[in-house]
Each structure stands twice: as C-alpha cells, then as structure tokens.
C-alpha cells in the first residue's frame, strides 16, 4: 500500500529518474539536465523538506519503490545563496562542461538551434532567477517554493494532496519561524494542475489555513524562469516557455 514518508539517501536515483520521466515531451532531448535544476539541489541542500510517495514495493508498472515526491525550501533567498556557494561547485564534470559550453554558445549566438539546452544552461547557472526580481513583493510574501512530481499511473488518487499537506506543515512549523507563504511554477496550459493548486490558495487544501490571504500570480515574460513543477493529476511538465508562478498560501 502506498504511503508518504521522509526522503532517504537511497531515494536519490528514483527522484532523478522521476524528474526526467515526468518532463513535458517537448523537452525530452534535454531531460538529462532537468534533475540538476529541479531535483538534485533540493535533496542535497534541503533534505529535511523532501517527502516521497512510497509504493510499498517495486511490484508495479514503473518497477520503482518511490513513485512520486515533493521537494522545496522554506526560504528561497537563503536557498539561492547556498545553491551558488555549495551546489554549483559540485556539478558533475559532464553537466558542468555542457552548461559552460551552452553558456558560451549563448554569448556567441552561434545559431546551433539547441534553444532548449541553452535555456536550461542559463537556468542552471543563474539561480538568482528564483528571486523573481521583477516583482519585488513576491518573495517576501511567498518565501518558500516547491516542486512536485508523481508518475502518471499514480496520479489522480489523492497522493498529491497528501504530499502537499506534509510539505506545507513542515515549512510552516520550521523552528517556530515557519514560512508565511509558498509559491510554485506550472505551465499556463496545464489546466488540471491549475485546478489542483487553486485548492491551496488562501489557506485552502488539506494542509490547513495559511497566514497570507492575498493571491498573487507572477507571469514570466521571457520564457527563462524556473517553472513546470509537475502537477499531480494530469501529467507533469517542466521547462516550458509559457509559465505561471503563483503563491498558493
């Protein structure tokens, strides 16, 4: 029987693979980079705020014990500083070299056509994008952020709400100084995911009431923001150029 539990180091490989498997089909050619943006830094820097959906055994269609997860941080500002100081220097050489080459290609505008890979290279190497500087009130109001992914065969069964509840409870309760709000990103055309997240706006959802009453949405105009955390009901997506960042409580 499936259940929610805290992340363990042995779950690392499954989380990396789920991050790639739940990517939007349009970006599968660049899927190898995605975990280094949307998964690995969180389990390395914020393991206490990571929870997984455990299938109880690997006897299922995916062949995996871990079939979903929620990860994030209660403090985006601090996370960005740690990302630069502690995470970027640890990138595997193959990824670091790829992104370095990608960054150089952007500067040279060599017209190689690999726009997605260049975009993800910029995202990986520029964590300041997480601060949404174009909207100065956004991070102070919603300082936490999250990513959630569940394999398709386990979606639509209520596990997304349970993962959200565990994560929100943890970031609120942190050392008596919990986050006052949390934000996430998603594809604008992911209507079913939008309906799911609406349940958490203004303190809704099974996670209980929040302290922030005003809903805020931030539209990314340049297509290079961090977006596309997997939804829990209709297929996950990452890295699309039509993104919507919203505060959910």
UniProtKB/TrEMBL annotation:
Residues 210-229, 238-249 have a biased composition (Basic and acidic residues). CDD domains: NAT_SF. One of its GO terms (molecular function) is acyltransferase activity, transferring groups other than amino-acyl groups. Residues 202-249 are annotated as: Disordered. Residues 78-229 form the N-acetyltransferase domain. InterPro entries: Acyl_CoA_acyltransferase (IPR016181), GNAT_dom (IPR000182). PROSITE patterns: GNAT. This is N-acetyltransferase domain-containing protein.
